[in-house]
Amino acid sequence: MFRSSGYFSTPPVVLNLIIINCLFFMATALLPGDIGWMIEQKLGLYFWESNNFRLYQLVTHMFLHANFPHLFMNMFALWMFGRVLEYDLGGKRFLIYYMATGIGAALLHLGVSWIEVSRIHGLIAEYGAQPDLVRALVSRVNVVTVGASGAVFGVLLAFGMMHPNSIIMLMIPPIPIKAKYFVIGYGVIELFLGISNSGGNVAHFAHVGGMLWGYLLLRWWKYKRVIFY
């Protein structure tokens, strides 16, 4: 018999976040017809110039995922690191942290998108509405962003700050590394990929945004002496 306090136990907020994400994924993947696509269109995050943009998407996009590997990696990381943080912070404060970093990630992503869209608007103003520029504008405005990655990166950042000397075993290469170095390295890689516009359709600045907002929130809570680490 497993004890509820055992290593593999999952506290309620993390458990319910995983369940909700899985339910949304099953809805988008398994419901018949165009229902899955309609859910993504309504709840995924669009740039504010898109006709599909709704303010609530800043929250709802966190519960959708593009495919099963995307879902699995985010939920596994949430389970691995979020359990410890929920015990550290308490369920209510952990949920506030998770949601705040997810929304903060979305805001930074939209800010970077605004810079890119503004650049295309400038080119159109200078050279006219050339077909390739119009296509680039329509494509950039209407791209949809989904996933809990921003919030999960916030969770990873918090783990690295609150348990800096904990050992994380990497899979590739299979070597141990302290959490603080892992978080710093991962953050630098994501920032580089975002600036260099590498990594395909991955929203790297959303990952950076989750870490940034997580850092600011933890520092604020520490300054107010509501948490200690």
Summarize the structure in short.
67% of the residues lie in helices and 3% in strands. It has nine helices and two strands. Strands 1-2 form a two-stranded antiparallel ribbon.
Can you walk through the features of this model?
With 229 residues, the protein is mainly α. The protein has a single domain (12-223), classed as Rhomboid-like fold (Up-down Bundle), CATH 1.20.1540.10. It is built from nine helices and two strands, in the order αααααααββαα. It has helices at residues 12-30, 35-43, 57-60, 68-89, 91-127, 131-141, 149-162, 179-195, 204-223; strands at residues 167-169, 176-178. It has a two-stranded antiparallel sheet with strand order 1-2. Strand 1 (167-169) and strand 2 (176-178) form a beta hairpin. Helix 5 (91-127) crosses helix 7 (149-162). Residues 1-5 have low confidence and may be disordered.
**Major β-sheet profile:** 2 strands, antiparallel
**What share of residues is helical?**
55-70%
Helix-strand makeup class:
mainly alpha
Rough shape? globular
- CATH names the topology as Rhomboid-like fold
* Helix-strand string: HHHHHHHEEHH
Report the uncertain regions.
1-5
Beta fraction: under 5%
Assembly state of the chains shown: single chain
